[in-house]
Amino acid sequence: MPKVWTTSGVDLHLEVVVGAGRRVALEQAIRAAVANGSLTAGARLPSTRAFAHQLGLSRGTVGSAYDQLVAEGYLVSLQGSRTQVSELVTRPPASLRRPQVIQRPRFDLRPGLPDVTAFPTSAWLRASRRALTRTSASAFGYGDPQGRPELRQALADYLGRTRGVRAVPEQIVITSGYVQALALLTQTLSAGGKALICMEDPNLPFHREVARRAGATVVGLPVDDRGIRVEVPPASEFGAVSAVVVTPAHQYPLGVTLHPDRRRQLISWARETGALVIEDDYDGEFRYDRRPVGALQEMGPDCVAYLGTTSKTLGPELRLGWMVLPPGRVDAAIEAKLHADHHTDALAQLALANLLSTYVYDRHVRTRRLRYRGRRDLLQAVLGQSTKFGAAGFRLAGIAAGLHAVLTLPLGGEGEAEVRARAEAAGLGVGYLAEHWHGPSSHPQGVIVGFGASSDAAFPAAVRALVAVLTKVKEP
Asked: Which of 143, 219, 296, 435 is most buried, judging by how many CB atoms fall within 10 Å of its CB?
């Protein structure tokens, strides 16, 4: 009958069916584990001594089985190390293989990405160490879905000081980034039926899909050089609007700031209708030509949900974000968070709280702001030195902020498809306006140039590659 064995040292779960003989049974069990993916390429097997002890076999029997499987190519035995599974024989079925990760381009000017090589590793390690030594053992249990009180207090202080956000810790809910925050809010808005949410046109298509999957109908509101247009109150044939999502500090992707008149109109409309304004403080920390514009939430804490993250300041892999909510919407958001994933990583929350309370986070943001400003200045200078760009109708759009700029293409000339083909051939990664519009129509075309993804050393070469691609664009 089958026997399940577990080893010490290197854990290995095998079903060894003793029938034809112990050595043969062990060989069959290992072959089956390799074939079904339980043992993957490079996985180490226990030593013959330890495995023999656990299985109740002689060491010679285990060694003979290993030798046979090495001869068949299932295993490899390396000098000075234990036997391991061969790299050549373990490949999961095609139906189980995940799509390959998109390769990073040689010249990386993709928008929406920070320079992750600048992550403050030493500061994060110190903050994590302090958090681990000062917190109680309860931090390793199930946490509060609203978030650690230390981080909520630190965020209330920081956001009030740097972004003008009016909040107390009880209004803050910690999330695993902006995407989760948007999904949770959409779920709460859709609780009584399908919600109607307005989003900027253009905006990130992934965010539209997040809202749709969370139960909302999404419609677009056009954006001009003053930001989202709210002269006509947002309404449509779909019914009353539940929320409007805006990026007032630095609109993505057009790069404009929401005009003060539009801010007042939006707040007035929200108060009149009872709808929610969802403020994505995209790139709010990074303004280069003046002090950053304060958060929209300061004007309407009763009707604005303020959303922020560490994705651009520290790195998206941390999965740390927050919502500052009107008091009447906090409980529903906590309930939605509880049923989504219970709580966000407590140790990461404590480390971030330490960085905020010791002002290390402030210093890091200031350093990154200077570096990114230098990159944008370089981009603007290099483009300005080329007489082709001004004469042919290229225009660098958007304010001096954030981690991207938009280079509009000349009217009547080659479009984004031609630029994309040349860029891909040159190993250049950039973004394009076409994929951000809500629907097919006659819209301006342009290239979205990110200056966050490349390191300081690689950025100049990436800009030269961009210029080389754009100088080949045929004029009207």
From this structure: 296
Please identify which residue in the block is written with the tokens 């954030």.
402
Residues in a beta bridge with 304: 277
385 contact partners, CB below 8 Å, separation of at least 6 = none
What are the residue ranges of helices labelled H in 15-55? 22-35, 48-55
- For helices 360-385 and 121-134, the axis angle rounded to 10 degrees is 160
10 and 82 in contact (C-beta within 8 Å)?
A: yes
What is the 8-class DSSP label of residue 165? -
Distance of alpha carbon 420 from alpha carbon 435, whole angstroms: 12
For the full predicted model, state whether its pTM sits above 0.70. Answer: yes
- The number of residues making up the chain comes to 476
For the chain, give me the number of helices (H) and strands (E)? 14, 18
Query: How many whole angstroms separate alpha carbon 242 and alpha carbon 247?
Result: 17
Rounded to whole angstroms, the Cα distance separating 312 from 314 reads: 6
Residues in a beta bridge with 147: none
Rounded to an integer, what distance in angstroms lies between the CA atom of residue 202 and that of residue 208? 11
Beta strand 304-309 with 276-280 is: parallel
Instruction: Give the separation between CA 8 and CA 50, rounded to whole angstroms.
Output: 8
Kindly state the tokens that stand for 449: 């140039």
DSSP label of 44: B
Is the bond into 120 cis (omega within 30 degrees of 0)?
Answer: no
Long-range contacts of 125-129 (CB under 8 A, 24+ apart): 127/351, 127/352, 127/354, 127/355, 127/358, 127/360, 128/347, 128/350, 128/351
Tokens for 267, please give them. 């707040």
Residues of the chain with pLDDT under 50: 1-8
Task: Give the pair of three-digit tokens for residue 310.
Answer: 């560490």
| Predicted pLDDT of residue 388 | 60
pLDDT of 6: 46
Distance CA 345, CA 318 (A): 9
* pLDDT reported for residue 8: 47
Q: How many CA atoms lie within 13 A of 281 on its CB side?
A: 31
- The three-class DSSP label of residue 107 is strand
**Cα 117 from Cα 126, distance rounded (Å):** 18
DSSP reduced 3-state for 276? strand
Paired with 396 in beta bridges are 407
Q: Which residues pair with 432 in a beta bridge?
A: 447
Contact 51, 62 (CB under 8 A): yes
